[in-house]
Amino acid sequence: MAVKKESGFKKWVLIGIFLLLLFISYQLYNKNNAPKTEMDCLNLGSNERTKLCLELLKQEKTLEDFPLTNLTIENVKGEDADYCVQLSGTVYNSGSLPATLIAVRADFSKEMNGASFHYEVFSPFQTDSEQIQPNSRKSFSKCMNPQTYSAVKSVNQWYFSMTPYSAKILSQ
Question: Where are its TM segments located (predicted)?
Fold first, then answer.
């Protein structure tokens, strides 16, 4: 009879330990430790972590489409340099709101204003989160993807045009 009580006691101890471990794992994995405020970001320790955290918080705000009619690309230049098609220009924001997450489309053709034989959509700035303030200009220079170089290198004389492809408004 004493043997049965010991095995019953061990069984309840094991069940208790199992439930305790289950509760601890629930507490550990159920918490959402993602920073939600600027203060949470400042408590992360290093400057690099804080900077990245603040950028992520800004990106989590809702983004609306920016009217592309308010963006123009000026002073465009292109050249074939060191296994790279190097494009440069200036993006001008004539709107009343800052534009962010700007993407530009470059179309390549064999004739001036001809049909495009290749295109590439790219972000002209170092980071996607760079903004162009209202009535401001920002210049860029970008080396296109190797696929663009491969498409263009066999064409003796090529032309290109750049147009705004997409942009967002960071709403507060």
Answer: 12-29
